[in-house]
């Protein structure tokens, strides 16, 4: 594995270098953990010497199957659960001593929405706003209104939470993270319970917030979600960090190895012959399609060759190795199966 | 020095042994358990691995060992750090405290369940008043029911009767519902984690929640007093009050003395609320804390009913709740009430400390 362990913006760190991030300087990181470990009563180790480094300004995907320790990690970061050992910093401040100074600048969605069912959405947000030590009550109405508008709940502001749908509840929880100017958002499975439209909106919102300079730390068990939103990724598996780094470097891990070209055509045999003539390897014939490793060949030349040979080309696509392949390689398993 | 794991120390021992053999027994450090022992007595400088140049030497021969050392140091720091969140840092400005208290009080008095409880508390004096009006006093009463018989002569006494009846169970139950729910209820529906992330501060949140429960105690006792005052004045004659000690006081002074009783009973309920909140920090199931409090009240009352256990009585919260007869004497007899207030204060201190110790160190996992 290449890269400089001391630099968080550097290469993907894998389990081969367990102490690498542990010696990393805090640098310009929004979240740094060193050997963070949580052993629950009964001996179950939920998180095992976690060394995370989340660069400031990144959209950081915290990926792992359900039960891999993501939520426990987030609870430790926010001071809800005391680690058995290890230390951590948020926004450059050692925790948990800095809780009261740092958390007002952090918005958090932890393990789904939780509100008072007999209060309206607006009253619920006012309640959480009142709980903080430094929010200005004079601007509360305005900030709450803006947050509700941002998640598309302005029309339902006065409706009781009890009457909210699952998607509305999730939106309200996201609105609660946007009540003030935040330097860091910690979002635990933010698209849970949302329909495809809502999921798209949340992704858009995350990008928008990140564009304003806020670091977003988003946990998910869905690879596609992380792939769509994130600039950096960390992968958890059974309480351990398997890898972390910029998402582009995850892609490069398999680059060159498996970029394939796929040709849709009814004339599969002819197409395969053309590909073979061009010297492509690993040719596979499918149902009305043929694929091969692209190698150094230019896709447009392949297209031209196919057309020149009279092959009916209905579609042509370059397939880069999916992140899923990379992650499956790292974790040894698919993502929705681990317990 | 770091004794987190025997392995790195042993490895360092081996390294030193090979490199610079200071005095014979370092060689022993190379084999397993003795390595740790040798490290402990530091004769060969092996134990100093964590401090100074030996540490650097160790770093050269094994990254894993250093990693473990760093983790170990962190562990010591945080294990202490999490348990002792400095109260001063969590406090914040008084205005923010008031805002959070306002939010708590608003939540308590907007909650349908609590409104119903207050309505029931207001209704019971009405029922007592109607019963006394219809059937007269409970007849043939001994010393204990002296106040009871006075009601039909002066409506003001209905307040004393209602409070001394309701303080036995109905008031404690409603206080237990609100106080027992205060922490456990929020934990149960998950709002506790968002309050703490806001960050409310654990000490601050607990203090504000207790203040809120005391406000509820005051409200509940006041509701009973006002309701019985109104009903008493409507159903029975009103006028100067004949005291237990024989003298009389004006109606106005009678009302002021009811105010004293309200404060005293509120203090008694606030002491119970401290017990209930302590239970509330021990569970995520609000009903458990509420039921636990009610069971404790009943057990205390049962224990207090045995003459053989009279030695216990001064220590039971329930023995003091009814101790407000003193206001019906001239001058106000403060002896028993003073002792009662001391007992209440002791309960608040002890159970408040339990609640604080538990709440500031607990893992919020729901």
Topology:
The complex is a heterodimer of chains A (339) and B (366).
Chain A (H helix, E strand, L loop, with lengths): L12 E2 L14 E11 L5 E6 L2 E3 L3 E5 L6 H8 L7 E6 L2 E3 L3 H4 L3 E4 L11 H11 L8 H11 L15 H12 L6 E5 L7 H16 L3 E6 L2 H7 L2 E6 L2 E7 H7 L6 E5 L3 H10 L6 E2 L3 E5 L5 H10 L6 E5 L3 H9 L8
Parallel strand pairs in A: 5-10, 5-11, 8-9, 9-10
Antiparallel strand pairs in A: 1-12, 2-3, 2-4, 2-6, 6-7, 11-12, 13-15, 13-16, 14-15
Helix pairs in contact in A: 3-4, 4-5
Chain B lengths: L5 H14 L6 H4 L3 H9 L11 H9 L1 H21 L3 H5 L2 H17 L1 H24 L10 H5 L6 H10 L3 H20 L1 H7 L4 H34 L5 E2 L5 E2 L1 H30 L5 H20 L29 H27 L5
Antiparallel strand pairs in B: 1-2
Helix pairs in contact in B: 1-3, 1-4, 1-5, 4-5, 7-13, 8-10, 8-11, 8-13, 10-13, 11-13, 11-14, 11-15, 13-14, 14-15, 14-16
Short description:
Helix content of chain A is 31%, strand content 24%. Chain A is α+β, with helices and mostly antiparallel strands and 339 residues long.
């Amino acid at each position: 594995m290449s890269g400089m362990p001391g630099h968080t913006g550097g290469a993907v760190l894998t389990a081969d270098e367990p102490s690498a991030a542990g010696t990393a300087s805090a640098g310009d990181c929004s979240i740094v953990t060193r050997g963070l470990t949580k052993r629950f009563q009964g001996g179950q180790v939920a998180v095992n010497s976690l060394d995370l480094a989340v660069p400031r300004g990144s959209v950081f995907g915290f990926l792992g199957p359900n039960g891999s320790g993501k939520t426990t990690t987030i609870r430790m970061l926010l001071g809800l659960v005391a680690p058995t050992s290890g230390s951590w910093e948020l926004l450059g401040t050692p925790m948990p001593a800095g809780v009261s100074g740092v958390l007002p600048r952090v918005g958090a969605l932890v393990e789904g929405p939780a509100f008072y069912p007999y209060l309206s959405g607006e009253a619920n947000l006012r309640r959480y706003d009142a709980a903080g030590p430094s929010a200005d009550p004079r601007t509360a109405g305005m900030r709450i209104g803006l947050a509700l508008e941002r998640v598309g709940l302005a029309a339902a502001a006065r409706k009781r939470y009890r009457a909210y749908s699952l998607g509305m509840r999730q939106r309200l929880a996201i609105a609660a993270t946007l009540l003030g100017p935040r330097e860091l958002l910690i979002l635990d499975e933010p698209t849970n319970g949302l329909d495809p439209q809502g999921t798209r909106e949340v992704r858009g919102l995350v990008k928008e917030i990140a564009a304003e300079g806020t670091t977003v730390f988003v946990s998910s068990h869905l690879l596609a979600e992380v792939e769509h939103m994130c600039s950096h990724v960390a992968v958890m598996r059974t309480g351990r960090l398997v890898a972390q780094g910029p998402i582009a470097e995850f892609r490069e891990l398999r680059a060159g190895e498996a970029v394939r070209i796929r040709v849709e055509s009814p004339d599969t045999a002819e197409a395969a012959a053309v590909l073979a003539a061009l010297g492509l390897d690993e040719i596979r014939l499918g149902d009305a399609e043929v694929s091969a490793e692209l190698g150094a060949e230019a896709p447009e030349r392949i297209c031209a060759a196919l057309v020149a040979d009279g092959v009916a080309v209905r579609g042509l696509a370059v397939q880069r190795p999916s992140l899923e392949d990379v992650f499956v390689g790292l974790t040894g398993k698919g993502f929705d199966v681990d317990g | 020095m770091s004794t987190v794991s025997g392995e790195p120390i042993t490895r360092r021992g081996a390294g030193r042994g090979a490199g610079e053999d200071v005095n014979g027994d370092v060689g022993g450090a190379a084999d397993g358990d003795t390595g740790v022992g040798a490290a402990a007595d530091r004769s060969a400088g092996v134990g100093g691995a964590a401090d100074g140049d030996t540490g650097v030497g160790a770093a050269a021969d094994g990254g894993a060992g250093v990693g473990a050392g760093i983790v170990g140091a962190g562990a010591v720091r945080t294990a202490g750090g999490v348990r002792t969140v400095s109260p001063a840092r969590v406090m914040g400005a008084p205005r923010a405290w008031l805002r959070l208290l306002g939010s708590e009080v608003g939540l308590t008095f907007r909650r349908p369940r609590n409104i119903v409880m207050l309505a029931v508390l207001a209704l019971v004096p009405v029922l007592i008043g109607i019963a006394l009006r219809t059937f007269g006093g409970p007849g043939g009463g001994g010393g204990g029911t002296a106040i009871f018989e006075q009601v039909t002569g002066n409506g003001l006494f209905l307040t004393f009767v209602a409070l001394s009846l309701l303080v036995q169970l109905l008031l404690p139950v409603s206080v237990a519902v609100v106080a027992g729910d205060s922490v456990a209820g929020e934990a149960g529906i998950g709002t506790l984690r968002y309050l703490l992330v806001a960050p409310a501060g654990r000490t601050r949140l607990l203090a504000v929640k207790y203040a809120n429960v005391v406000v509820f105690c005051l409200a509940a006792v006041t509701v009973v007093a006002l309701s019985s005052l109104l009903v008493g004045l409507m159903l029975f004659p009103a006028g100067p009050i004949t005291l237990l000690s024989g003298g009389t006081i004006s109606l106005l002074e009678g009302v002021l003395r009811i105010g004293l009783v309200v404060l005293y009973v509120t203090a008694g309920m606030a002491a119970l609320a401290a017990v209930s909140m302590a239970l509330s920090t021990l569970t995520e199931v609000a009903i458990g804390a509420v039921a636990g409090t009610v069971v404790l009240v009943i057990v205390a009352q049962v224990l207090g009913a045995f003459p053989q256990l009279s030695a216990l009585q001064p220590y039971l919260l329930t023995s003091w709740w009814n101790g407000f007869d003193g206001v019906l004497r001239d001058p106000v007899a403060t002896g028993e009430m003073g002792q009662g207030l001391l007992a209440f204060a002791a309960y608040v201190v002890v159970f408040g400390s339990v609640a604080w110790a538990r709440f500031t160190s607990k893992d919020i996992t729901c």
